[in-house]
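Consortium newsletter contribution from the modelling node. Members have asked for a concrete example of what our holo predictions look like. Here is one, prepared for the magnesium ion complex that several groups have been discussing at recent meetings.
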Amino acid sequence: MKYSLYFAPTSKDVPSEAEIISHKLMIRSGMIKQSSAGIYSWLPLGFNVLKKIEHIVRKEQEKAGAVELLMPTMQSADLWIKSGRYDDYGKEMLRIQDRSSRQMLYGPTNEELITEIFRSYINSYKDLPKNLFHIQWKFRDELRPRFGVMRGREFLMKDNYSFDLTFEEAKKSYNNMYRCYLKTFLKLGLTPIVLRAESGAIGGNLSHEFQILAKTGESTLYYDKELENIDPSKANIEKLQDYYAAVDDQHNPSECPINEKQLKISKGIEVGHIFYFGTKYSEKLSALVQTSDGKNVPVEMGSYGIGVSRLVGAIIEAFHDSKGIIWPDQVAPFYVSILNLNTKDLKCNQESEKMYSNLCNINIETLYDDRDIAAGSKFSDHDLIGIPYKIIIGPRDIKEGRVEIENRKTGKKNKLSIEEALNYIIKKSKDSQKL
Ligand code: ATP
Ligand code: MG
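And here is the predicted structure:
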């Protein structure tokens, strides 16, 4: 993509309502524009990252055996009245009346709808287990939408639902999703902190929250500080589950299994939540399946959610510096930028164009900054946007056939020949695809 044709309205100004760093950086880098409280337009850069995260989440769901479908955002109130949640949900639910005075709502979640779909088609143990997911916008009229996309009113969620015949089977589905979530967050470059969540009597301990560390997070976490040193690309899933972590009301110093020196207290933000709820909805909505001995029993269910749009903000909270965002390779909107430092220099233009078409030909996502603006502004824009590598093409070096590569994360610069630079980027991009 040529920057001159692109739409990334960067700015130095931060609106006063942006309290946290990810919100500030998303606005400054032109990723989102607020349209009303807690509701955003996703501008090209933001939308690009959102799709990358969605893609990783989808792939891990599919690997775990979940099947994608798409349910509507608008739902009829009928099913919610049957399940008893129409009244319980309270003011967080956006209720709408259609032209025939039918009660509708903008879905805050989809347990009722998926149970109804299941009920309509599946009625035998022979068709179990099933695990269905979708990635769809949700609406919750949050009391205090804030922190940009981290607590929006309209937000993108991946939610899936498991269906099993017995509790034992449901537990297997739950554990399968548990592992899938750990893998998903690691794939996104994040180290998930797993917490037991309360799920009431029926769930027992079959409810977990996945949080990531963020100074501005809304929960207080007590955890083994070793968790901070884990490299997500090398993490061992079995080991990850063994580290101590608790939210403040679960943490009891006298029962804590690790010593004070190992223990750290910090803030976290919830990025995923998994939950076994048994037959809560299948009973109310008559989703019955026949067992091998001919009995009809309500199907055992669990639901599993990941905040896809919240993750955009959460990743920025985890990866930024004073200059801007530092995207992990796998979710970066572009892999490399080309900074043409002098668009009036013939050689700079020629070599930048050549480099750009070479990278495009091998499908490396490139943002070529061909704008006729000061070099300093190009550096600050690309640092803000956070693309992993810059190829810097300036008049003096290029005369000698050299360019400079800068690593956004380490700040390290490297002068290389044009060919070496191209090979370097190709190698790095291949390495990152292996992650
Ligand atoms: P929270 O305690 O943060 O309100 P929740 O318990 O209401 O979350 P769930 O119903 O479990 O959330 O939803 C699944 C996931 O959706 C959450 O883990 C979170 O990542 C995301 N999510 C929930 N509410 C919002 C919101 N208002 N804005 C953005 N993402 C959200
Ligand atoms: Mg909530």
